[in-house]
Structures
1.
Amino acid sequence: MEPGDNRLHQQLQSARERLQDLYRRAEASPAQRELLEEALAELSISLEELQVSVEEMRQYNDELAAAQEETAVEHRRYRELFDFAPAGYLVTDPWGNIQDANRQAKEILGVFQEYLAHKPMITFIAERDHKRFRDLLAKLLTDDLSGEWETEILRRRNGGAPFPATLSVFRVCDPQGRLIRLLWLVRNITERKKAEDVVQQSLRRVIALRDINDAIMSTLDLQQVLDFLLEKIEQFFPYPIASTVRLFNRDKRLEYLACRNIKDEDWKNYHPGSPGARGQEVVRTKAPLVVRNIQTDSRIIRRPDFYRRNNLVSYLAVPLMTKGEVLGLLCVYTKAEHEFSDQEIAFLSGVGSQAALAIYNSRLYEQLKEQSLELRKAHDELEQRVEERTADLTKVNDDLRFEIAERQRVEDELRRSEERSRNLAKQLEGQLIISDRLVTLGELAASFAHEFNNPLAIILGLSQEMRLGLERSDPHYESITAIEQEALRCRKIVLDLFDFVRPKEATFTPVDVGEILHKTISLLSVQYKKSNIKTVVDLEPDLPPIFADPQQLRQVLINLSFNAAEAMADGGTLAFRAAANRVAAKDHSGNDEAQVELTIAICDTGPGIGPELLPDIFRPFFSTKKGKGMGLGLSICERIMKTHRGRISVESRPGEGTTFYLHFPVPEVKE
Ligand code: ADP
């Protein structure tokens, strides 16, 4: 029982005792007894009620004590949690004055707890962020702000270095919504920052490698690739560096290809064609080599002043290697002493591999270019030789062609002259035969004509007389007519002979071609009828007269008509056409002039003349009529046409009939 409870109990006990006493005294004074008893009874009830209240109070007290105990336990637990939480917690008033802090917070801030009490939180925050922090506090008075606030925390104790941290803040308000406290969560993010830096660096490395790769892929120009490479390497290192690339050439000597942030001349003067001790080591081990301070490195035997003069201190070299072969050296120098990290070494090795590939490709390309140039040169030479040879050949060819053409021309000429001589010989032979025959024929014909002419005249006269005396219906009419025709034919032969042997003198007069044609047709009408031949006359209107011997012209027409009638033994059509045309001709002096020519065409529908015979038909005594003809008709026609300064021509094809053309010059009518 609690001391307070005891006291209350004792008071109750004494109240009860005093009540007993009052009872006793009331019994002693009967006058007031009733009133007193009443008061006492009420008092007694009140006492009882008080007793109950005391009891309730005691119970309530017990509960309170239990609750207090529980709260204390919770508080302890909260404190433990608060103190041992992995993050730093700070409790400040709304103006940022520290009220409480957990252990971690003290740890983070590097101070003792006493130091923290009532300290403004801003004293721990980097000066550059003070304004931002004040603004934050001002905003927090009214607004709930979420998220993290990054700053740098200044360590106080032992002059500790500042470190990056994030602050998260929570507002605590009273029931009226007024801000009474701020709870801060402080996290040291040094490790996170470091991790981020590592990621950033890796990213930069990857980007640099990718850029280098892109550049390598985009050009085959070695110098361009190397310059770009050194530029990218410089960008990658966050402190000043110098860099160089040297390559072994075909003679295994080191060539100075590119350098950055070192005087070109100085660098080239310094390095001989063979690698120094460090370079040799890289080539031998095919691995990166790091020298902390190159100026004091014991391996340097050649001009260490070069490094001092150019302020080159730490050294990292990687072999430029492809397909197991070291093509050259890539070196990076720092301007201040530096310990190259594994990442930096790995980066430069990666760059070295890529650069080696670029160098390899570029060299391959150069080789290809050289080969291609050589090929082109060879090709050009070959082409030139082919051109020269072609020109020679063309010339020889032209000469040959000319020679062939010349030979052809000579051959043609020869062939033609041979042909001419053959024709001439033939003609001469024909003429010889003719003249030979003609001599005999002339004599023969004279007596022949003389002997036959008279009996023929008698036969013809008598037969004509007899035919005229006979009716057509007379049975002898046909026979007499036949005798008359045959006699006529014989007379023609005789006359032909006469004409051929002793041609008559021509007497030229203007002749109307139409008239002479009609007369000739009418003369031969009986013959046509007998042979069932239809005649057609087709004359151009207004034909000019020709200058001719009518007798001789008629003889030509009769000869041609006879031949046509004989060719159309089974009937056909014999057409006579005449037309005048303007043709090109030569005047007496051999100059070109236009002349009017009248052409008579005698066209039959007979069997035609084969091409093999055509050249011979105008030859005297050429006949296909096997004894029935003398073969003189056409040669007489040709001679007569020549006498008329005209000419005779023929067109004939087997099965398509024959057309003879008589061309007469039409004399110009002088006004
Ligand atoms: P002939 O009539 O006595 O044979 P020509 O000198 O008149 O002599 O004719 C020579 C040859 O020309 C004839 O034998 C004949 O073969 C051929 N000839 C002439 N005219 C014609 C014609 N219209 N159709 C076919 N052949 C013809």
2.
Amino acid sequence: MNLAGRSFLKLLDFTPEEIMYLVDLAGKLKWMKRNGIPHDFFRGKNIAMIFEKTSTRTRCSFEVAAYDLGMGCTYLEPDSSQIGKKESIADTARVLGRMYDGIEYRGYGQSIVEELAKYSGVPVWNGLTNEFHPTQMIADLLTIKERFGQLQGVKLTYMGDARYNMGNSLMVACAKMGMHFTACTTKEFFPDAALVKTCRDIAAKTGGSVNLEEDVETATRGADVIYTDVWVSMGEPDEAWEERIKALTPYKVTAKVMEYAGEQAVFMHCLPAFHDLKTEVGKKQGEKFGFTDLEVTDEVFESTQSIVFDEAENRMHSIKAIMAATLGLELQ
Ligand code: CP
Ligand code: NVA
């Protein structure tokens, strides 16, 4: 498997074999880190990390992974560079491509990260756009594989806003890996019809399936993974809260949902999550709309079925694998 020089912009660009290679490489690098085996294969190389939206996991994962691989890194925070304001994406890409061996980008439209990749001449890694969150997918697939021993045939139900980066990405990931994906939400929050069609065509070849279902019990009975994300994503207007809470409250992950799924089921969330009112935004919205939790109850979040922190740790190992593979590492 040779992924050297490739950018990692969305899973649609990768074959199931390539995706599985990245998942397994992440597992190997995790084992090396746990066993204290040095893997600083890229000493002397440097990466740039552009964040036009905030982050905890993705930024820390790129930084720690870069250090473990022996690389230096530069963090460009929201509003701290000329990007998009005084300098075009194409010009920025050509400048950073002269200085760095790889570039991470988190921001708005997918077209921006695609343009960076087109002009930079070095691998570009998508750290989240409005449309896709592909590095999260390698971590999620690794986490699911660790739990169930395989990906093929695993049933994943995604509840909430299925039209945005997480819903889209999980639908693509499941289709590619022969898994059964169900978007469990109200019709207006179903993923884009063209993407659903693309994923159904992929699933027809891999043995997976893509289902859209409004009824919670039907969508969650027997599911292996119950997955959710925030109802209002970064960059969306404040006014969205009221409409989302009204529309998506029936799709909150509760103990009843986990009971429908069964004892074997796990709860996953890309994080950050509104499972209590211990955050500034959660408190404000909770008090305004009379809630103590939003997309998931605290009971489920803190339960033994919840594997959200294994999932968060795996962000680092999988981002390391993505960088290493695209920078030219081939581990036997
Ligand atoms: N899951 C995720 O991308 O988290 P951050 O926003 O903290 O990077
Ligand atoms: N849908 C969320 C994912 C955060 C990791 C957002 O875009 O804010």
